[in-house]
Write a structure and sequence with these properties.
alpha+beta, 3-stranded antiparallel beta sheet, 5 helices, 3 strands, globular
Length: 118
């Protein structure tokens, strides 16, 4: 990993849930409204992004090189993840995965101790 990418990883991790979901959506090229729909659908309506949130995050991610504009359809910019964005997404996915493993182990150890105490 080069120095610039390492700095990006350091500055983006941990990611907000909104940023993570948006970057994940851009594995397939989408426009802002499509991102809002996809996030809502994938989270069963638990996360609903406002246009101002989406376009603020898109602007920053594009500026930082995590995403790029790949086309424009009916005045809507279509964005896609870049190789730097994929590195960030993979690093955050790994971070979240290790948290889940830690939580499962802690809960498993706690429940076995609780069962032994009963």
């Amino acid at each position: 990993m080069d120095e610039i990418t390492a700095r990006l990883v350091e500055s983006y991790l941990p990611m907000s849930e909104q940023s993570f979901l948006m970057l994940l959506c851009l594995v397939k090229p989408r426009h802002g409204y499509g991102i809002m729909q996809q996030v809502s659908e994938q989270t069963n309506g638990r996360v609903n992004l406002s246009p101002s949130t989406v376009y603020t995050i898109l602007y920053k991610m594009e500026l930082d090189g995590l995403i790029e504009t790949v086309s424009e359809i009916d005045r809507r910019k279509v964005y896609a993840i870049t190789s730097a964005g994929k590195i960030i997404l993979e690093a955050e996915t790994e971070r979240l995965s290790s948290l889940v493993c830690f939580a499962k182990a802690a809960m498993s150890n706690n429940s076995s101790k609780t069962a032994a105490a009963v």
